[in-house]
């Protein structure tokens, strides 16, 4: 038994059917129907079983199981919204803020190398922070933690903030469509970005004015004021 809604299986099956029609696949030439391919793929997503065992349980070969999973991943990835579309939906739904965070996903050792900021040759996919090989993926999440957008894979040696800047995530967060109005809660990454963008001055520091009791304590960004 697969503990996912039947509507989800049917939705994935419809996407796979559209893909087969676009590729010109003739009826009856596939080992599994779109519905059972969807079930196979969702079992793999849900349980992460070995594809040889997974294929055997559906009566297909290991190579076919790999091909079916890869095809479904490609079809599902094509449905993902762009970053600006995701932020526009967040604003339309009235969420108070979004969360930007990155995660390192374990990978096998990769032979690709790159040059560090110190001019040394290093492994591009090795994270010194995690002391392991991995791929960095950035995600923008709703306040309840549900991801609404994920980035393409980035080499593991890059810092989260560097990945966000290279992918222009920080630019999208500070300059969304004019119809968007939402709060951005300060995070270590955004604080670091703010410090890096603050110009230095040789003038002595001035005494700060006492904060107003009516001023909001949460940074608020309204792009319509820009």
Task: Evaluate the radius of gyration.
Answer: 23 Å
Unreliable segments of 5+ consecutive residues: 176-187, 197-226
Order of helices and strands: HHHHHEEEEEEEHHEHE
Largest sheet: 5 strands, antiparallel
Helix percentage: 25-40%
- Which structural class do you get from the secondary structure elements? alpha+beta
Strand content: 15-25%
The overall strand count is 9
State mean pLDDT (0 to 100 scale).
Answer: 77
Summarize, please.
This protein is an alpha+beta fold and 226 residues long. The protein is 39% helix and 16% strand.
Topology:
Elements: H1 6-23, H2 34-47, H3 51-57, H4 62-77, H5 83-93, E1 99-106, E2 113-115, E3 121-123, E4 126-127, E5 132-141, E6 147-150, E7 154-155, H6 160-166, H7 169-174, E8 182-183, H8 188-197, E9 220-221
Helix pairs in contact: 1-2, 1-4, 2-4, 3-4
Explain the overall architecture.
Strands 1, 4, 5, 6 and 7 form a five-stranded antiparallel β-sheet that branches. The protein has a two-stranded antiparallel ribbon with strand order 2-3. Strands 8-9 form a two-stranded antiparallel sheet. The protein is of the alpha+beta class and 226 residues long. The protein has helices at 6-23, 34-47, 51-57, 62-77, 83-93, 160-166, 169-174, 188-197; strands spanning 99-106, 113-115, 121-123, 126-127, 132-141, 147-150, 154-155, 182-183, 220-221. The protein is globular. It folds into two domains: 6-77, no CATH class; 83-196, no CATH class.
């Amino acid at each position: 038994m697969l503990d996912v809604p039947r509507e989800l299986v049917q939705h994935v099956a419809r996407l796979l059917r559209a893909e087969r029609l676009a590729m010109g696949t003739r009826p009856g030439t596939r080992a599994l129907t779109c519905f059972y391919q969807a079930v196979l793929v969702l079992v793999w997503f849900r349980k992460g079983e070995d594809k040889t065992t997974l294929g055997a349980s559906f009566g297909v070969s290991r190579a076919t199981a790999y091909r079916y999973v890869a095809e479904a991943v490609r079809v599902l990835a094509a449905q993902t919204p762009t970053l600006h579309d995701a932020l526009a939906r967040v604003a339309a739904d009235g969420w108070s803020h979004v969360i930007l965070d990155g995660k390192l996903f374990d990978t096998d050792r990769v032979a690709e190398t790159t040059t560090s900021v110190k001019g040394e040759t290093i492994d591009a996919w090795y994270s010194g922070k995690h002391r392991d090989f991995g791929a960095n993926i950035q995600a923008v999440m709703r306040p309840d933690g549900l991801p609404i957008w994920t980035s393409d894979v980035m080499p593991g040696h890059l810092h989260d903030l560097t990945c966000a800047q290279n992918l222009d995530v920080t630019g999208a967060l500070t300059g969304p469509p004019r119809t968007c109005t939402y709060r951005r809660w300060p995070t270590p990454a955004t604080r670091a970005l703010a410090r890096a963008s603050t110009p230095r001055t040789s003038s002595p520091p001035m005494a700060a004015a006492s904060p107003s009791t009516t001023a909001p304590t949460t940074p608020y960004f309204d792009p319509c004021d820009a």
